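USER:
Working in pairs, take the chain set out below, taking as long as you need, and write a paragraph about the fold.
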Amino acid sequence: MSASAEMPYFIKPSVNLSSTEKESLYREATQAINANIDDESDIVLKMVTINCLLKTFLPYYYWVGFYLVKNNRLTVGPYQGTLGCLHIDFGRGVCGKAASTRQTQIVGEVHALAQGTDHIACDPNSQSEIVVPVLDEAGELIAVFDVDSTLTYSFDEIDQRFLEEILNRHFAHKK
């Protein structure tokens, strides 16, 4: 199945925010996430709740989800949006780079990257992206958290700070 450039009927186009609006909505989303999953131990329930609430609060989120580490590569896990890539090798694309380096990746214009190696075009509507490594309590990589926008330059250090805090709190800290 190949990706289409036509916006799916069930997806709203992204809307970028000012820094002030972004900070405010992240604070609200973080509060809602913490209220719902602070006492939760099931990893899948945490992932689907994080996806749902961030996509609900942040209007520039087009695709949001987790790629899980399985068999020495990334495999699509819980997500919201259009069809994601099913498997991604470590080091390939933005998700694979985040997995292999264990560092958050922010890309302002994904189509400016070398296609097939530096970027994997699962959906041509995605224009910018942030990918955050997800570590467990032992510091092992268990997933990457991927967010795409239909607009360029949607993601910045505000996104990085809030996403790293949310993911660290709910996956890396011992309860």
User: Anything to note?
Assistant: The domain at 19-172 is CATH 3.30.450.40 (Beta-Lactamase). The chain has four helices and six strands.
